[in-house]
Structures are given as structure tokens and as C-alpha cells.
Design goal:
Elements lengths: L14 E5 L4 E5 L8 E4 L3 E9 L2 E9 L21 E5 L8 H4 L10 H14 L3 E4 L11 H12 L6 E8 L7 E4 L3 E4 L1 E6 L5 H18 L4 E7 L11 E8 L4 H12 L2 H4 L7 H28 L2 H8 L1
Parallel strand pairs: 1-5, 6-7, 6-8, 8-13, 11-12
Antiparallel strand pairs: 1-2, 3-4, 3-12, 4-5, 9-10, 11-13
Helix pairs in contact: 2-5, 7-8
């Protein structure tokens, strides 16, 4: 996002975040605070240690621990296991793309709506259901997230398996552009998570799985995950992500293409497969049981503190 929001730098302004060696990690219109984190496409985790004006430095914390092998469960949050619904909405309904839309902001009719539509169409094409809400939450100010929260509460009645708040970032086009063989120049995406949000760990797990799945198919298409000092209404759902598609300097076509490619990966991540429905459900139940057993062991281990006591408790 950009211009006037409580979490944003203001029209046309952006932060540049570098590692300790001075290499640029990412640029963003989000306000960057000390303590914010970033996970790069290479799965390196960084934490912001210094912010001076519009520049910030982040220290490397090392590589992220590997994700567990099984897919993220579709679970009870979907309406039907084989046709999960993905909800899409836009907190900043004015956000637009200058090269194509002629302005960076078009109140209530932003170019970002078409980018959300590309995401929705790709999701449907790959066998999941997608619902895009194009309610305007203008003006683009600190109250926009309060207004879009009402929209999200309505969307949650459809029991979505995942939720995307689609935006466009601020800053130069270059860091967001990627050449994808067979597709030409497309806009990359950046996932944003509010770290002041009780569901942060489940949101982050889903974000990492999405980045992994997308980047293993289209290298570098998701450029990273930014964890900012905000909530972004992500406390309302375990798989709620904010998705930045390009900046005001990127063409809308490039952002639409990027959203299409990212969207094409989402259904398989949610357990949609071309296999007969019985197979995937059986597998899901199998590893959900496995998780439950593992959870019980972890609980017993923590509560007893030793293998001997734990064995005695189980016996």
C-alpha cells in the first residue's frame, strides 16, 4: 500500500532495507520498524536493527527451519474438502499502476481490482472456488483496515480455506520485476504478515508454504515475506495473507500476470488435486491423526520433563 495509511510511508515514499553488508534486501511502502522481520526467497530470516529516515538495516538470523513435509491441512475451515473457497478483497481500493492506469490512485476503482481478478481466475481454473469482493474502503487512510475488517467478516461466512488482501506496494519497479520463461516480464509478489497478530504463526506457516510452492515452480516470483508491526485483520483467520503485487511504477499487465501465476499454485496447496476425491481425504485424515499423536507426545514430554516419567504416564 501507499499514501496515508497508518502502516505506510505516504504517497511515493518507500523504505530501503539492506543487510549488514549493504546489499538491498527489499524496498517497500510499509513503514519499517526496529524488530520487523523479513524472510527472503532463499529462506534466510532477517530482523531490522536500525531505522534511519527511509533506510533500514537488518541483521541475518540464519536460515529458516525446514517446513514439515505434509501439506497444510485443508481441515474444517473449508466448505467442502475438494473444492475449498479462497476469499479475495482489497483494503486499499484506490491502488493503481501509473504506466497503465495513468495514476497511482483511482478512488474506489483502483487497478488493483483487476489484479485481484487475475488471482481469482487462476484459482478457479485450477479447481478451487474463489470469491472476490470489490467493496471500496476509501479513503486510503488509517481507518481503511477498520472498514475492510467488516468486509472480511462478511467473507468469512463463506468459510474460506484462505484469504488474500491484495495490494500494490510503493517504490521503484525494478525490485518487483522478474523474467519468467514463457511469460515475459511479470511482477513478483511480496507477502506481508502483521506480527502484532495472535494468528501470526499459522499465517506465517501458510505464507512459507505458498512462497515455497510458487518459487519451486517460478523461481523468485514471491520475493519474500515481510513481518511488519501491524495486525492487517489477520487475527480473523489462520490463513490470511496480505499480498503486494508490484508498485505504482509497474504496469498493471505485469502485476496481473504475476497474480495469475501465484494463483495457479494456490489450489494444490489447499489440497485440490486431480486424484479421485477419496485418496486425498484419506491422506489428510491420516496425517491429521499423526499430528494429533505427535501433539500428545510433545504435551506429555513437556508436562513430565523426562522419558521415564512420560513412559510411566503412558503406561
Amino acid at each position: 500500500g501507499e499514501a496515508g495509511g497508518a502502516d505506510e510511508a505516504g504517497a511515493g515514499q518507500y523504505y530501503t532495507v539492506k543487510d549488514e553488508a549493504g546489499n538491498v534486501l527489499f524496498t517497500t511502502g510499509h513503514i519499517v520498524h526496529v524488530g520487523d522481520e523479513f524472510i527472503s526467497a532463499e529462506d534466510m530470516r532477517y530482523q531490522v536493527t536500525v531505522v534511519e529516515g527511509m533506510s533500514a538495516t537488518a541483521a541475518a538470523l540464519g536460515k529458516m527451519e525446514a517446513l514439515l513435509e505434509f501439506p497444510a491441512p485443508v481441515g474444517a475451515q473449508t466448505n467442502t474438502r475438494n473444492n475449498p473457497t479462497v476469499a479475495i478483497y482489497h483494503t486499499h481500493s484506490d491502488e493503481s499502476y501509473e504506466p497503465t492506469d495513468g495514476a497511482s490512485s483511482i478512488p474506489a476503482k483502483g487497478g488493483v481490482f483487476q489484479v485481484g481478478q487475475s488471482l481469482a481466475e487462476a484459482i478457479k481454473r485450477k479447481g478451487a472456488n474463489a470469491v472476490q469482493n470489490t467493496t471500496s474502503h476509501d479513503p486510503h487512510d488509517a481507518g481503511a483496515y477498520d472498514r475492510s475488517r467488516r468486509t472480511l467478516v462478511q467473507l468469512l461466512k463463506q468459510n474460506p480455506a484462505a484469504v488474500f488482501d491484495v495490494h500494490r506496494d510503493a517504490g521503484p519497479a525494478e525490485p518487483y520485476l522478474e523474467d519468467v520463461p514463457g511469460y515475459g516480464t511479470v511482477s513478483r509478489g511480496m507477502i506481508v504478515i502483521g506480527r502484532a497478530n495472535p494468528k501470526m504463526s499459522s499465517n506465517l506457516d501458510f505464507a512459507r508454504r505458498l512462497m515455497d510452492s510458487v518459487n519451486s515452480k517460478y523461481s523468485g516470483l514471491v520475493k519474500g515475506i515481510f513481518m511488519g508491526k501491524a495486525d492487517f485483520n489477520q487475527d480473523l483467520h489462520d490463513r490470511a495473507l496480505l499480498l503486494e503485487m508490484g508498485t505504482e511504477q509497474v504496469s498493471k499487465e505485469a502485476a496481473e500476470k504475476g497474480a495469475d501465476l501465484i494463483g495457479s499454485v494456490v489450489p494444490s496447496l489447499l489440497g485440490v488435486s486431480s486424484a479421485p476425491s477419496g485418496g486425498t481425504t484419506g491422506k489428510n485424515i491420516g496425517w491429521i491423526l499423526g499430528l494429533t499423536v505427535a501433539g500428545t507426545f510433545v504435551y506429555l514430554w513437556i508436562s513430565t520433563g523426562s522419558w521415564e516419567e512420560m513412559k510411566a504416564k503412558i503406561m
